[in-house]
Write a structure and sequence with these properties.
The protein is α/β, with parallel strands linked by helices and 251 residues long. 38% of the residues lie in helices and 25% in strands. Strands 7-8-9-4-10-11 form a six-stranded mixed beta sheet, sandwiched between helices. Strands 1, 2, 3, 5 and 6 form a five-stranded antiparallel beta sheet that branches. Bound molecules: adenosine-5'-triphosphate (ATP) and magnesium ion. This is ABC transporter domain-containing protein.
Length: 251
């Protein structure tokens, strides 16, 4: 009972997660004994230098990249104990994903692209389109539903990717440098949308970013270096961290 209660507290938890990639005849360790906890209804930011293993970690949390050792639990389920198709379905049901680059099916318009995750899960075209339109309205781009995604600005495209990530009504949104290609105003809008998802809809957001100015929005910040968790900060520690960063001129 005790164990189950502890489990409930986290929506995602990893246990001594290790990932190695083959490099010639050797193996290169990219993640080392990562014990990560993501709490529901929180905005968690993961940051760290390029090559430190952030994207690899996210891909493992998503069930896309099997760990060499260790475990990933999502909503109490051991991700890599599932069969591949079960894991894919679990991902489709629980996760929405946003990357730095939006990936479009170029022959499809905005509405059709946003419908895809629902069609992949076997929903009817009518249902998928209705939900997709609602999702596009949520990001304020209904006017562009019939456009080709590439006709939109970078910021608008990223909002459409967010609409696509949200169309399945996922409990967790995972974002890998979602503002990496955006101007300041569009970046801020994306972060505001994340905050709204958490505060109004009780969703959980995990974001990798290089932009430390977003730390002040986060409930929890995790710094990764050389494939290890270097530090984990709660709200009050983040406040001090942000102060220190401002003092040394990082905005
Ligand atoms: N499929 C792969 N095969 C071999 N090595 C890989 C693979 N994917 C990642 N790596 C290596 O793992 C390390 C971590 O990569 P990862 O993409 O996770 O870093 P990152 O922290 O996301 O970096 P960035 O901030 O530049 O996106 C790098 O050294 C990378 O070369
Ligand atoms: Mg990366």
């Amino acid at each position: 009972m005790e164990g189950r209660m502890v489990e409930r507290k986290h929506i995602i938890r990893t246990e001594r997660l290790c990932k190695e990639f083959p490099a010639g005849r050797r193996q290169i360790g990219v993640l080392h004994d990562i014990d990560l906890h993501i709490y529901p209804r929180e905005f968690t930011i993961i940051y760290g230098p390029s090559g430190s293993g952030k994207s690899t970690l996210l891909n493992t949390l998503l069930g896309l990249e099997p760990p060499t050792r260790g475990k990933v639990f999502v909503r109490g389920r051991d991700l890599f104990k599932m069969a591949d198709d079960q894991r894919a379905e679990f991902r489709n049901r629980n996760y929405g994903v946003v990357y730095q680059q939006p990936y479009w099916v170029k022959s499809l318009n905005v509405l059709e692209n946003v419908s895809l995750p629902l069609l992949l899960r076997g929903e009817s075209l009518k249902f998928a389109r209705g939900r997709a339109m609602y999702s596009i309205e949520q990001v304020g781009l209904e006017r562009f539903a019939k456009y080709a995604p590439t006709q939109l600005s970078g910021g608008q495209q990223q909002k459409v990717s967010l609409a696509r990530a949200l169309v399945t009504d996922p409990s967790v949104i995972v974002a890998d440098e979602p503002t990496g290609n955006l101007d300041t105003a569009s970046s801020n809008e994306v972060i505001e949308m994340f905050m709204d998802l958490i505060q109004r809809l009780g969703r959980t957001v995990v974001m990798v970013t290089h932009e430390l100015r977003f730390l002040e929005y986060a409930h929890r910040a995790i710094s990764i270096r050389d494939g290890k968790i270097e530090g984990e900060f709660g709200k009050s520690e983040i406040k001090n961290l942000v102060k220190d960063l401002k003092a040394i001129g990082i905005k």
